[in-house]
UniProtKB/TrEMBL annotation:
It comes from the Bacteria. One of its GO terms (molecular function) is endonuclease activity. Residues 190-237 form the HNH nuclease domain. This is HNH endonuclease. InterPro entries: HNH_nuc. Keywords: Endonuclease, Hydrolase, Nuclease. It comes from Nocardioides currus.
Amino acid sequence: MGISDSRELRGTAMAWLDERTDPRVDFGWLSTFTYDGSRIPLMDRQRGIRKPAGMDAALAIRTTFTPPNQLPPYNDEIGADGLQRYKYRGTDPDHPENVALRRAMEQRLPLIWFVGVASGLYEPIYPVYVIGEEQAELQFALAVDEGQRFITPGTPMDDTTRRYVERITRARLHQRVFRMQVLLAYTDRCAVCRLKHPTLLDAAHIIGDAEEGEPVVPNGMSMCKIHHAAFDQNFLGVSPDLTVAINRDLMEEVDGPMLKHGLQEMHGIRLHVPTSRAQRPDPERLAARYETFLAG
């Protein structure tokens, strides 16, 4: 399969992913993709870097799910330049999978990144580009946004630019994965009102990005958009014992049904939390955030 065919296949695969009804995908469903009459699974069950037969460059990469409080098998992380890194397969730069990823870099081909959000479930991030290789660190540098493709990895940049690049990386990758993991933990329900419509739900940070809050499930709660906004503005608080509190001034206001039923009647209820203790809100983070709510 030539490079031109490879580009067309990638575009077709990404368009196919755009049409999915469930934002989370698994190996079985990804194995049903067809192109030009042939079935071409988008994920390899055994390998992290997917290169279908007949192609010389990688089509997709994968990061497996890491349960709470466990270390990931590969330490993919954001570099000092704000760009995301993806670790080699093993330590040999000439391993076929690493070569396939290098070919994608040389040919400037878009990739699909399947990031594990639960056991066997993935969030597809695309298009992603390999824009640099750091052999001493056994890793590649990735662009997760079109604008990042024009950055040379590792080059000096001012703090404002670096923070901007990192903010894009977190928004396109880390925060999307964080949202999906939180919604899965809360079975796609608002922790406050039990609303069960994923498109109306957010992952609310207990400790926010500005305070260096980590994008991990114990630092998040699934909330509908009205309760997320109320939480961010300190109209709504959650105590360490998982009790919802509404701002005193708001409790005394008189307005329409949303204020009465959507906020005031939530005062004093107990938060709906995951069955897994490891995924429940961290009490220490809640205590720190609740102090902010009380002070507000």
